[in-house]
Amino acid sequence: MKCPKCGHEQSADIECESCGIIFEKFRKLQEKQLKLEQQRVTLESDLVSSGLQLPPRFFSFVAIAVVFIICAIGFRLTFKTSKSRNQDPSTIATGTIGVEPASIHEAEQTGISKQLNDYKNPHNKIEKSQLATVFIETPWGLGSGFFIDSDCRIITNRHVVDFDPEKIKELEYQVELLDKMIERDESAVIKAEKLLEQISDPNLRADMNHRLGIARQKIAGMKEQYHTLKKKLDQVKFGPASTVYEIYLYDESKYTVYQAEVSQLYDLALLRLDQENCPCLESRSTESLPVGLKVFTIGNPMGLSHTVTSGIISGERMHENIRYIQTDAPINPGNSGGPLIDEDGYVLGINTMVLDRAKGIGFALPIETALEEFGIKP
Questions:
Q1: Which string of b and e fits 143-153 if b means at least 16 CB within 10 Å?
Q2: pLDDT tens figures, 314-363
Q3: Rounded Cα distance, 172 and 115, in Å
Q4: What angle do CA 49, 69, 251 make, to 5 degrees?
């Protein structure tokens, strides 16, 4: 095939041997840029030149832009109420899940293990597995990971911790777009305020003041998003962002990791928290996984931390001599690097990718691949 960026001809269809881009990521980036350009054209045609009658689609676009920013740079969205110590276990997983999991390494109740168990008393094996799962945030994205041993080593995907230079262009465009939106709306508010001075009817003045208040709130929200995004962009461009990873545990405690060991063969990376006695997942062989086996994913899709979804094993596939576990359990943006576990809480694989433009087709690297790659004893 021919590389869409540099034109290099090759047979491999995953990564360019010349410029190093990942074809799938490059294609998605182009699609996002095209979509944003189309949205910008729509926005510019809809915004009025004066007054306060901003079209409803404008606020819809703001919502779309904010969601995109969250996905692209890892703006963290958490719901602490979903992590109540008295949470109903049925909201996490259904089915016959035992209370005493054999799959979670029972480290001595000190350090991080004690900290998390004091925060949350798990009702079942899946809830206990959540305690061993982490949220990983970088200035350019977000992802998931999990403790694989009590020494606090974390397995995740390489693409979660590796910086993609293409993200700079994407972030710059978002900053520029938000800046223009703020400028246009502030101009509209100023014109409306001048118009208000000419209105004597008290009811109409009250209505206009109400509309002005709503508009100012919207602008304030966009400014907050702009400053957050600009800060992230500056970190990526000018700071040591490529070596800073923020690790969030189940109790929302945050830790910083400055180094990551990345695999050159697989989409895998290894980090380590400078702490002791972390709760960790035990592995189970995937050599003969039965099709139809119920499995769960734990991760942070769209920034919703420690979300659990379920599905089944659909089979296994080979791609470029690499074995993958296929599952229909949802793997969404932010889930990358999280664990694929069975009903007993044993980790079977690392959630890695989905088949584009298809629902219910996801792939996980077998846990044995990661253990062997990083020299970790099961």
A1: bbbbbbbbebb
A2: 999 998 899 999 999 888 778 899 999 999 999 999 999 887 776 778 99
A3: 40
A4: 140
37 — pLDDT class (breaks 50, 70, 90): low
The structural domains of the chain, with segments of one domain joined by +, span 1-34, 35-76+164-240
Global confidence as pTM: 0.60
Residue pointed to by tokens 């890695």: 352
Residue keyed to tokens 């004091």: 118
| Over residues 226-234, mean pLDDT | 82
Between 202-238 and 166-196, two packed helices, what is the crossing angle to 10 degrees? Answer: 160
Q: Which residues are CB-neighbours of 268 under 8 A, at least 6 positions away?
A: 155, 156, 157, 158, 262, 350, 365, 369, 370, 373, 374
- Paired tokens of 28: 């998605």
Alpha-carbon torsion (233, 236, 238, 239), positive or negative? positive
Q: How far apart are CA 144 and CA 157, in angstroms?
A: 8
Which of 33-37, 135-139, 339-343, 355-359 is predicted with the least confidence, judged by mean pLDDT?
33-37
